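Protein: DUF2187 domain-containing protein
Species: Lactobacillus iners DSM 13335
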Amino acid sequence: MKKSDIKIDSIVGAKSDEEISKPFEGKVEKIYENSVLLSITSYEPEDETNVSDLNGKIVVSFKNLKKLAKKPSKQAETPTNEIKISKIEAKDDQQ
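Structure follows.
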């Protein structure tokens, strides 16, 4: 992929032979001279530990980027705090 084809906030497909074993997708956060900083948006389940170790970000060379052609396999999950509240009804034990 050429530098001129890449825009900030665009989603691209990428591969990294060293860090992540399978192809993944990421959002372009910053463009450098020969590479980009990606925020990883989707990846294969077996790469979950590596993505976590990278804090969801990776620098990838332009030659390892491609335009997207398929649906992502797993969305990166942003941790959330969920609170579930349920009403407990008092039972009337009158007979």
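Remarks: The chain has a mean pLDDT of 84.
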